[in-house]
């Protein structure tokens, strides 16, 4: 068990490597504010167009899905602000490392592969939120009448956001690992993009999905990424309802992370076969 | 033009080495393009009209915009990666070859997958055109292909223009996506949805209104909500030519400005 020695040494000093991974990832993703600001501009422009579209819909159907027009507009901007942190368009750096074979180095590290990348992703999400979250919200506030949470609402939203990032990571990690078997991950990536765009509420809030489609969409993991945190943001969940949202998000995060662990173990065996 | 075809064919053959992957990716690309369509369908599940426009009329706008964008994206969408070539220094390799770098970048990794984006708008137009409640005069019939071609040229010019900016500032690329992809998205809906100043900007600053909105008003026989002169409805081809000239000038200026990377 020589490969395990550094971990035990670190652990014996009470130092965990994960916070460092997260901190360096945060630094890396916060290092290019200009590029991030440019991304935020595009997120903001899309926010405006989406807001005008939903305003027209709520103008024709006031109170649709239990949202007021101000709720619907706030939904557009908060979800545009979440694109970066939740990385709803998919992708994980790990994919390129699997394709190039560099993942062998990752697997040799005396740390857990999934844990390492989760820490990395949390750092990324924090850095991206700081740089790309504020501009769309600020612009939306300046131009429209928005529903905003109070201090308690912001805290509730922060927790939902954290769970959304973890669930999102768990999904993207699964997609990334399929590269071990498929070699070309682009097909998987595209399928997961379609699912996450449509079923998360990015196209339109899930509250306007009619009948059974809406019910199914609300049970799928993608609802935990955008729709649920946005509902918390709009103050539509309080007390027991809030806890049921957290439980839903935590359930999917746990299930998907567990699936990721199982797949990691299988991939480890797969890589040995491949490495001959 | 011949070189573009030759290069595109080469990349196409390369992609065809993995037929299953190509087919799957093509299918997925078509579905991503159909997501916008799903959004429109969801809207009209709740209301017969949006900002005064019926489902057929909005689908007509979607079909023309998405069709024009898909063709322009297939032909020139690759120029988006100019900044990457500048950063990696691979643009230098392109410059020493006896083919225009614009053609090389545009044809790079040309795959039939990008053409799969054409499927949803083509299907929508085939269904919706005969159902539009308009009197099909020769002028209106002629306007449909004219607006599609003008739309392609306008989007293509926008691709080249936004790429040219990357000669000067690479980091600006993510923001230009608001004009390219954002333009493709916002032209799928009637401009009556948007604020008046915004529509004015989309008419006179970034002429996205000429992709399908102004000619669309002509085909659908509707008054301009901003009260702009009727002549603008027929101006799309002229705008397309003008914007192409601007884009060509910008590209040449950018290429002259380019001083390679490194120390």
- Quaternary structure state of the chains depicted: heterodimer
Structural class of chain B: mainly alpha
Q: How many helical elements of chain A?
A: 13
Shape of chain A: globular
Helix content of chain B: over 70%
Gyration radius of chain A, in Å: 20 Å
Please state how the strands of the largest beta sheet of chain B are arranged side by side: 1-2
Give the topology, please.
The complex is a heterodimer of chains A (276) and B (263).
Chain A (H helix, E strand, L loop, with lengths): L4 H8 L5 H12 L3 H28 L8 H18 L7 H7 L2 H6 L4 H31 L7 H27 L1 H4 L3 H15 L10 H9 L7 H7 L6 H35 L2
Helix pairs in contact in A: 2-7, 3-4, 3-7, 4-7, 7-8, 8-12, 8-13
Chain B lengths: L1 H14 L3 H26 L4 E2 L2 E2 H22 L5 H7 L1 H7 L4 H7 L4 H4 L3 H10 L9 H31 L4 H14 L9 H9 L4 H12 L15 H22 L6
Antiparallel strand pairs in B: 1-2
Helix pairs in contact in B: 1-6, 2-3, 3-8, 3-9, 3-12, 9-10, 9-12, 9-13
Concise synopsis of the structure shown:
The complex is a heterodimer of chains A (276) and B (263). Chain A is an all-alpha fold and 276 residues long.
Task: Explain this structure.
Chain A is 75% helix and 0% strand. By secondary structure, chain A is an all-alpha fold. Chain A is built from 13 helices and no strands. Chain A has one domain (15-274). Chain A starts with a helix and ends with a helix. Chain B is mainly α and 263 residues long. Chain B has one domain (2-257). Chain B is built from 13 helices and 2 strands. Chain B has helices spanning 2-15, 19-44, 55-76, 82-88, 90-96, 101-107, 112-115, 119-128, 138-168, 173-186, 196-204, 209-220, 236-257; strands at residues 49-50, 53-54. In chain B, a hairpin with a 2-residue loop joins strand 1 (49-50) and strand 2. In chain B, helix 9 runs antiparallel to helix 10 (173-186) and helix 9 (138-168) packs parallel to helix 13. The radius of gyration of chain B is 19 Å and the shape is globular. The mean pLDDT of chain B is 90. Chain A binds chain B through residues 32, 34-35, 37-39, 41-42, 44-46, 48-49, 52-53, 55-57, 59-61, 64, 184, 186-187, 190-191, 193-194, 197-198, 203-204, 208-210, and chain B through 18, 21, 24-25, 28-29, 31-32, 35, 38-39, 42-43, 45-47, 49-51, 171-175, 177-178, 181-182, 185-186, 189, 193-195, 198.
